[in-house]
Specification:
Helix content is about 35%, strand content about 20%. It is built from 11 helices and 15 strands. An 8-stranded mixed β-sheet has the order 8-9-5-10-4-11-12-15, with helices on both faces. A 3-stranded mixed β-sheet has the order 1-2-3, covered by helices on one side. A two-stranded antiparallel sheet has the order 6-7. Strand 11, helix 7 and strand 12 (about 270-275) form a beta-alpha-beta unit.
């Protein structure tokens, strides 16, 4: 008896994308299934330049399908779509998914929640805006808040309005010269986002393809913690120029940060560097530093990833107050120690991107 497509689909749900716990069917990588008696032909498309991933996928697919009594031959045609940086896209007729109006797109990621990733993203974006404004490139920074379940960027940057739709595109809102789009702007603040993976994927694709970003020098993408649907959807959709890994000094954070960073390595997104958040608490009067969450965890992560420690951000009440009040510390207190740290990190990242 010839096997059905439904049975093939069920079997393919056992094949995980390398480095992820999710299967290739739910990621939408299988484009076509054809059955000819005891032969199965598959068309698969993945976005990576790492040929080891396609080899591993083909091996796993064959092992799963050839265990079935009704299948004697499996042909797997895997199409590789290499990740492209935004600077390589110059054709004005290219689709919006190529982000041709954005020079650099960088992701801010962490292995776990609670490490201050969104706070860093907002202050980094504002620091970029200040640096580029001095070079005559004002209003050239954007933030794409991909933390679908816990969007906090609107609160931290002081935006509460809903975006408008113009020519079938979402118009990002703007504050402090930074354009943003976030799920927090699209749903009521008291309404929880209870979505399964496919809806998360669709939202990220829409943020990338259906937002009128205009001309941007840098788009900062604030990712949710972990390595799951949102992360792979992003690298499958957006041509990233690099990722910044956020961690706190303690082992519980650094160990997970390493695993999260390895996800980017698997999909050939370069790690631009590591930032250690909540590095120390400094007493204003005495200047004494207390290492509440441990010490040098960020250095260890950077060394393991063979990348640069971009900076250490202190645990500061003023950073927290700025986030709660919607005025990032880079804006409210630009000469403070934390703001200077953010500006130095932003300047270093700009140098890395421009030299790449």
């Amino acid at each position: 008896m010839q096997i059905s497509k439904e049975e093939i689909t069920k079997l393919l749900r056992e094949v995980k994308y390398p480095g992820f716990s999710r299967d290739i069917m739910s990621f939408g990588l299988v484009r076509n299934i054809e059955i000819d008696r005891d032969s199965v032909n598959l068309d698969i498309t993945i976005t990576t330049s790492d040929t080891t991933i396609s080899d591993k996928l083909e091996k796993d697919i064959r092992e799963i399908l050839l265990k079935t009594a009704n299948i004697n031959k499996v042909n797997v045609d895997i199409k590789l779509e290499k990740t492209r940086t935004s600077s390589t896209v110059t054709d004005s007729t290219a689709g919006k998914d190529k982000l041709q109006n954005i020079r650099y797109t960088i992701a801010v990621a962490s292995g776990k929640g609670g490490v201050g990733k969104s706070t860093f993203s907002v202050n980094l974006a504002c620091a970029f805006e200040q640096l580029l404004a001095k070079a005559g490139k004002s209003n050239s920074i954007g933030i794409m808040d991909c933390d679908i379940y816990g969007p906090s960027v609107p609160l931290m940057i002081g935006i509460a309005d809903q975006p408008e739709i113009e020519n079938n595109l979402i118009k990002p809102l703007e504050n402090f010269g930074v354009r943003i789009i976030s799920m927090g702007l699209l749903v009521d603040q008291n309404t929880p986002v209870v979505w399964r993976g496919p809806m998360v994927n669709k939202t990220i694709v829409q943020f990338a393809q259906n937002v009128a970003w205009g001309e941007l020098e840098i788009l900062v993408v604030d990712l949710p913690p972990g390595t799951g649907d949102a992360q792979l959807s992003l690298v499958q959709t957006v041509p990233l120029d690099g990722a910044i890994i956020i961690t706190t000094p303690q082992s519980a954070s650094t160990n997970v940060a390493l695993r999260g960073a390895m996800m980017f390595e698997k999909v050939n997104v370069p790690i631009l560097g590591v930032v250690e958040n909540m590095s120390y608490f400094e007493d204003i009067e005495s200047g004494k530093r207390s290492y509440i969450f441990g010490k040098d965890g960020g250095i260890k992560v950077a060394q393991n990833l063979q990348t640069k420690l971009l900076g250490q951000i202190p645990l500061s009440q003023s950073i927290r107050e700025g986030s709660d009040n919607g005025i990032p510390i880079v804006i409210s207190s630009p000469k403070s120690s934390p703001a200077i740290s953010y500006l130095k990190i932003a300047n270093d990242i700009l140098s890395i991107l421009q030299k790449a």
